Amino acid sequence: MVDKRDDGSGERKMRMVVNYQALNALTVAPDFPLPPIQTILEMLGGTKYFSTLVLETGFQQIRMAKEDRWKTVFRSVLGLFEYRVMRFGLKDAPATFQANSNAYLQPLLGQRVIAYLDDVLTYSSDLFGHVSLLRQILSVFLENQFYPKFCKCKFVRQAITYLGYTITAEGIKPAEDKIEAIRHWPEVLENETQVRQFLGTVNYCRMFMRPDYADVSRPLVDLTRFRWTELHTKTVQQLKQRLIDFSTWPRAFSKCLVFRAPYEVPAK
């Protein structure tokens, strides 16, 4: 399927979406973790200048091995197609991309440079050193054919949004859009999905809440637990028995159906 999404420049562009659930079920993802966000935030204290570089179509800057391309095949009205680059939705894509980012930026990582998937952050206390780091990062990108999406990059800022948080020399707080989302969230949740969505959003910012967050949120957490009662057992039994008792549909077809192939089958 194809959907539209904001590409960060304010323009909505078409994006191909392929369901890789079957492929992912057979895939063993590499054991390469993403940097813990809590650790990243702790590294940013006391710095004044920030820049973020976002890579254009992130995962697609990694080429697929020729022998693995057939695994990404998808069917359309125009025929079968396979990807020559790593696609979003593949189980091993995040770990593979993170491993490549770390490998290319290895000499700079830990020296006021952080790579989190396709978002690279550099932070410095002095302007001259900050510009120097930016030049080094861009040189690495150029050498390894990594291309930033410059309309989404932010250079030499004293306040910046990164990974859902607003970062300044004074400290860190949740990004304004997250605060607004929580502020306007309905106060009455209607089902388990809505409860999980709300808890997921709030939990992302729990470090900014009082120490009793777990106690305050427990009533909602309890709502997400699976509860099986006698009523559910009886329902399953009834549905199973109805299918078992089923014999023959009295009028499966009301008309004669003729199946035509789009091509002739040659006689043997």
TrEMBL record:
* Signal peptide stretch: none
Q: Which InterPro entries match?
A: DNA/RNA_pol_sf, Retrovirus_Pol_polyprotein, Rev_trsase/Diguanyl_cyclase, RT_dom
User: Could you tell me which residue ranges the Reverse transcriptase domain spans?
Assistant: 1-167
- Which PROSITE patterns does the UniProt entry name for this protein? RT_POL
Looking at the record's lineage, which domain of life comes first? Eukaryota
Q: Which residues form a coiled coil?
A: none
Instruction: State the name under which the record lists this protein.
Output: OSJNBa0042D13.18 protein, related
Native species: Eimeria necatrix
Q: Which classification does the entry list for the species?
A: Eukaryota, Sar, Alveolata, Apicomplexa, Conoidasida
